[in-house]
Write a structure and sequence with these properties.
408 residues; globular; disordered N terminus
């Protein structure tokens, strides 16, 4: 599947929106005017946006009758200056309602509705910053941790894309993707960046309220157990596989993989690989920094959570399990309730999600949470019956409540 997050379903939905907006238009001029009205009715301004990667405040959209130029957007930069750009050049946060209308307009205008910069943020891309007006220092604040260093955490306000750097004690207990409840003490700016100090009251994981755009699932056809290898001919099917075989054919999917900073021309040269190389060379600080930067760019990079969990697994399983669970729960946003499909390991973009599941299950087992571990391993076998991760050799020990050991 394309890592831009585009699929036939989303394009069809955009085509329906374009048709609804332009249904009464008999010329390009009338279509532009119809889009202008649709933007007026559905896009709340001012709103945060980006132009050529730079954060701006979009003040309004308009159409002045120039069909070649099309709709325009008036933007205000961080220094207060205002200027006009083509509306098609504005990038709005993907989870905003306005982003859908901009994509529909680009689609009608003959442009790619989902250019890469709208779906996978680049490493180091500037973001909108918290202002003093965004913060109420009289009560507790809820922040989403994006990346964590020894003495600071890069966060965004829950329900917003605006970012702030948090300075507090106990930051090493915070995991990217978790919600941090802070009792604020002071807010200030330094070198144009906002900072907040305070006391961490609690942390929690609640992925559905983070406002993340679910990773897309690409339909890859039908998985048929009759076509799979279940052992030598004449041998009975193992007990764990019988319900899977009895269920019969099921749809199989590939989950979108988000990887900020990857080199499209060289798939082997990506930040995850660089992080692993640094870890293997003994540079744990450098390896951790790369993974944190990926999370800062886009929390939906499941592989970053999986490898952060891997780094902590041997030393602190209580920390590792939280990294794995963040990735697992973000992936589950795409599956919904009662997911019956198959996510084969052979479709490589499924692997980050399956790694998070495996790490989470192993930590549950290691921490003595046998019933939960059994459920996770059972789900893994159901989703990936080829069992490339060897879960079928572990689930028996979990069911008999055999303690996890270093040799597992």
């Amino acid at each position: 599947m394309s890592r831009t997050g585009r699929d036939d379903r989303s394009l069809a939905e955009l085509d329906q929106l374009v048709k609804a907006i332009t249904v009464e238009a008999s010329s390009d001029d009338e279509a532009h005017r119809a889009f202008r009205q649709a933007f007026k009715d559905n896009v709340v301004v001012p709103c945060d946006g980006f132009v050529i990667g730079e954060p701006v405040s979009v003040i309004g959209f308009d159409y002045e009758g120039n069909e070649r130029r099309g709709m325009t957007a008036r933007c205000r930069s961080e220094d207060g200056s205002e200027y006009m750009v083509a509306a098609a050049d504005v990038v709005l946060p993907q989870r905003s309602g306005g982003a859908r209308h901009v994509a529909a307009y680009r689609r009608w205008f003959g442009l790619d509705p989902f250019p890469p910069e709208t779906t996978v943020p680049a490493l180091g891309r500037r973001k909108h910053k918290v202002t003093a007006a965004d913060l109420d220092l009289t009560g507790s604040l809820e922040l989403v941790a994006l990346s964590v260093k020894r003495n600071a955490a890069h966060c965004r306000l829950l329900g917003s894309d605006r970012v702030v750097t948090l300075r507090a004690s106990r930051l090493r207990e915070v995991i990217p993707g978790e919600i941090v409840v802070v009792k604020p003490r002071k807010q200030w700016s330094y070198a144009g960046h906002p900072y907040l100090s305070g006391e961490i009251e609690t942390t929690r994981l609640d992925v559905p309220v983070l406002g993340l755009v679910p990773l897309r699932l690409a339909d890859r056809g039908i998985w048929d157990p009759e076509e799979e290898y279940w052992g030598e001919e004449g041998e009975p099917i193992e007990e764990w596989a019988k319900p899977i075989f009895a269920r019969g054919p099921r749809p199989e999917y590939e989950m979108e993989q988000v990887l900020p900073g990857e080199d499209k021309d060289d798939p082997s040269d990506d930040p995850i690989t660089k992080s692993i190389d640094l870890k293997n060379a003994g540079d744990f600080v450098g390896a951790d920094k790369i993974l944190m930067e990926i999370c800062k760019a886009d929390l939906r990079c499941l592989d970053a959570h999986a490898h952060l969990g891997n780094f902590a697994f041997d030393r602190i399983p209580e920390e590792a399990i939280r990294h794995y669970e963040v990735g697992l729960r973000i992936g589950e946003l795409s599956l919904g309730d009662g997911f019956e499909g198959v996510l084969p390991w052979g479709l490589i973009d499924n692997r980050p999600f399956l790694r998070c599941m495996q790490g989470f299950g192993l930590c549950l087992w290691r921490l003595g949470r046998f019933e939960e571990a059994e459920r996770i391993f059972g789900k893994m076998l159901w989703m990936n019956p080829s069992d490339n991760q060897g879960v079928r050799s572990l689930i028996g020990d979990v069911r008999t409540r055999k303690a996890w050991t270093e040799d597992t």
